[in-house]
Amino acid sequence: MPDRASTGTPRTLRKVSTTITPDAAGAADTPATDAPARRFGRAARFVRPAAALLSGALLYLSFPPRPLWWLALPAFALLGWTLYGRRLRAGFGLGYLAGLGFLLPLLVWTGEEVGPVPWLALAAIEALFVAAVGLGVAAVSRLPWWPVFAAGVWILGEAARARVPFGGFPWGKIAFGQADGVFLPLAAVGGTPVLGFAVALCGLGLYAAVRPVLHHRATGTLPRGPLAAAALCVLAPVTGALAALPLVSDAPEDGTATVAAIQGNVPRLGLDFNAQRRQVLDNHAARTRELAAEVKAGTKPQPDFVLWPENSSDIDPYANADAAAVITDAVDAVEAPTVVGAVIAPPTGKLRNTLIQWEPGEGPVATYDKRHVQPFGEYIPMRSVVRLFNSDVDRVARDFGPGSAVGVFDLAGTRVGLATCYEAAFDWAVRDTVTHGAQLITVPSNNATFGRSEMTYQQLAMSRVRAVEHSRAVVVPVTSGVSAVIRPDGEIVAQTKMFTPDYLVEEVPLRSTKTPATRLGTLPEALLAAVAAAGLGWAAARSVRARRARP
């Protein structure tokens, strides 16, 4: 019998070294098989970053003037896939890319007249909040019911962005892109935080529902628990929106009021529109006198009150008798209380962006000073530093100061809440007027410095959401467009064209019922922030336990 060794079959298995030196590896591999693999590996690195940018772009496309609100759902689904299971550092980076994809196109109007530097700087800073959200979503993505915690993290990020720095910048809240969406009734339940949470939860739930299906195709087993949780994350927001429909009503509770909104237009676009401020004042006075002539002719109904926009008189009527005479003449002609947007320039101290209640035959009887003035627009923080990057800061030669009192005017028996332009983006600024008795809300605005950009449509969508949130009609008079009258259910019943002199006269319902959102105030946002904090704390505890368990 031959020896087994002589046949090439060893009696015992020996370890064989498989170490290949770099030179040997290069010699052994053939370009035909290795080059495509290397190219695929390099390309795969960019898949998630590209997906993060795409998710942000889809969020942008879901905002007005496009009626594509539903794109927010695949945007969050794609963001969920991008961040699921990622390390914290990767989550931060991918979140930052998503923020840039979203905010760069959304905020391009901020550089309309001052160049790209302020726009790029604002988008880059605001995207840091989305980056922090990406880190948080990555952290909670391994938890049971992770879409709930992840949606809470998104709302926590929005809450932070609405408060810091310089008083916050809530532009781009997910809720503001949902004025045409099926989730809109949830604004009446818990305001913009609940509405935004529902959209994020539904989108993330869509991805969570797809994951078990993909797992089934790969392994042949279907994890029923995660699939049921994901399905509930999708169905609960939709069901909640349907259940909230009875809260959306435009039925009059305190009768109706006939309101007129004046759009006088500006002599030219851009930052120099107020160089001809007398022309702007004359434009609004002329449109008001035209309305008065139509009322006397019987072709237009007599308005109970008239609303002029922000900056309709950049000449201080308290200091300039000629400007006061122009306003008085127009108000007396239309024979109705009129709200005039004016710049008040006291001899010392800061300017005031003021709304004045001007009564026919009496003149000015009440004022409201804008409480949240716009940083880098109405005042310049860190002026000496900002000047190094953009000399346009000196166009704001004198800073505006904020008011402190809530604005509610009694106009011919109707209590009208006042939120000036930028204030409409802040939950508290609008809610305060309703809790102080407003039966109708007005948002006088001036968008002339932003040209024909999407800004005016984004701001109009905010007012539509506010109408449903507080069940109040909202009237938006704007210097250059788009002015609009919105019913309490969010429907626009009349609007103007951009940069066109015009006026709107509509009968609107007056309401006094307070929605749950009005009554609850910041409580829903605080509860959702607590959900996010609980998820982040749970994820951190699991991570600590996992590290301690390692040998």
TrEMBL record:
SUPFAM superfamilies: Carbon-nitrogen hydrolase. Pathway: Protein modification; lipoprotein biosynthesis (N-acyl transfer). Its EC number is 2.3.1.269. InterPro entries: Apolipo_AcylTrfase, C-N_Hydrolase, C-N_Hydrolase_sf, LNT_N. The chain crosses the membrane at residues 46-63, 69-85, 92-111, 117-138, 145-162, 182-207, 227-248. Residues 257-510 form the CN hydrolase domain. It comes from the Bacteria. It is found in: Cell membrane. GO terms for molecular function: N-acyltransferase activity. GO terms for cellular component: plasma membrane. GO terms for biological process: lipoprotein biosynthetic process. Keywords: Acyltransferase, Cell membrane, Membrane, Transferase, Transmembrane, Transmembrane helix. Belongs to the CN hydrolase family. Apolipoprotein N-acyltransferase subfamily. This is Apolipoprotein N-acyltransferase.
